[in-house]
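Q: Given only this backbone (373 positions), what sequence would you predict?
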């Protein structure tokens, strides 16, 4: 088995698959495995995943438990338990293998389906089918006991995923998004796309890329940045990009309004302070301002503004976030110029928890309109 680099681990679908395989093997042998070997498919290599516990729940069902290890990533799922519950299926089940999400697996609000995406489905089906005997059928439930609580600490609700975490990703290897080699990958993608277009769209993560595509932004203009916004803004200037659209969830891009250009929360998180300052500058005072400053999350603070807008008939949300998007644009443009002496037009578009575009900077609206034609 190829060993992981010091920066790499495995993605959540790999551990879910390992737990399911271990549970199936117990049903077949009544012996607990201490590890299972999986074919990752992408990349084409194997991985040996330790199994913490396996138990039979009668003769027809078994449960196996493993724990997530994302390597050097600063990932909130580190060490979280993943359960695979497998039971023999009857003749009435049409599929050889049927997979569902249990407690802690998010639900896609748009479809009502479990947030188990294509790579996770492929990985589970491929590895389980290798173990499954002829004429055997199984029903598989993936459970993340801590998933509901962890999901509330992510931007999943902004992308329509509620009640838990997604089994998301296109690879079995979890690369550290803070590692220099990962920045190099993003930089090379930017350089390649800048050769074909001098107008690009920066999206922080996979969910942002997905929403951008659904909104009609051509994939050939989309550049994934992860949290490396600062160095990639500079690279855009060096590559002669003329205009950039920063496309993202308000809870992440708001940091740029405060001059924070590496957006990982482990490094800097002044979102409440930035939002409170802009509210005060627009004249908000008293208890509402204190409530925003003391809100436990940026989403909670956003909701306070929404409620205030409804109760006072003053468009506080629009006013505050219009000012914030303009500040993001100005800060980003200045950042590029200060590091490259190159002028790049930067626009900003923000979306909220309901996946709705709700705030545009002055330049963001113009660039967004140009891109959509």
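A: Predicted residues:
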């Amino acid at each position: 088995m190829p060993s992981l680099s010091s920066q790499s681990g495995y993605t959540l679908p790999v551990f879910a698959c390992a737990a399911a395989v271990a549970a199936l093997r117990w049903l077949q042998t009544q012996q607990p495995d201490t590890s299972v070997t999986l074919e990752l498919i992408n990349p084409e290599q194997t991985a040996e995943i330790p199994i913490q516990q396996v138990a039979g729940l009668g003769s027809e069902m078994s449960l196996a438990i493993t724990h997530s290890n994302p390597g050097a990533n600063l990932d909130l799922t580190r060490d979280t338990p993943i359960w695979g519950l497998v039971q023999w299926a009857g003749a009435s089940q049409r599929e050889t293998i049927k997979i569902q999400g249990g407690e802690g697996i998010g639900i896609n609000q748009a479809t009502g389906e479990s947030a188990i995406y294509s790579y996770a489905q492929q990985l589970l089906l491929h590895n389980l089918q290798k173990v499954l005997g002829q004429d055997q059928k199984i029903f598989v439930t993936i459970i993340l006991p801590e998933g509901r609580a962890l999901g509330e600490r992510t931007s999943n609700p902004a992308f329509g995923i509620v009640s838990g975490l997604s089994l998301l990703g296109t690879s079995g290897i979890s690369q550290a998004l803070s590692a220099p080699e990962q920045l190099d990958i993003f930089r090379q993608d930017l350089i390649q796309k800048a050769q074909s277009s001098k107008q690009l769209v920066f999206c922080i993560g996979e969910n942002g890329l997905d929403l951008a595509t659904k909104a009609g932004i051509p994939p050939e203009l989309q550049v994934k940045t992860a949290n490396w916004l600062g160095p990639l803004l500079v690279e855009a200037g060096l590559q002669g990009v003329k205009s950039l659209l920063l496309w993202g969830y308000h809870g992440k891009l708001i940091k740029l309004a405060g001059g924070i250009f590496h957006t990982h929360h482990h490094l800097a998180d002044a979102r409440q302070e930035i939002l409170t300052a802009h509210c005060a500058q627009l004249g908000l005072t008293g208890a509402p301002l204190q409530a925003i400053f003391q809100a436990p999350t940026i989403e909670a603070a956003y909701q306070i503004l929404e409620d205030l807008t409804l109760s006072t008939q003053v468009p506080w949300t629009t006013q505050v976030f219009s000012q914030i998007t303009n500040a993001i644009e100005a800060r980003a443009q200045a950042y590029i110029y200060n590091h490259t002496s190159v002028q790049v037009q930067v626009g900003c578009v923000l979306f909220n928890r309901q996946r709705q575009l709700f705030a545009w900077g002055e330049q963001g609206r113009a660039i967004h309109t140009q891109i959509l034609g």
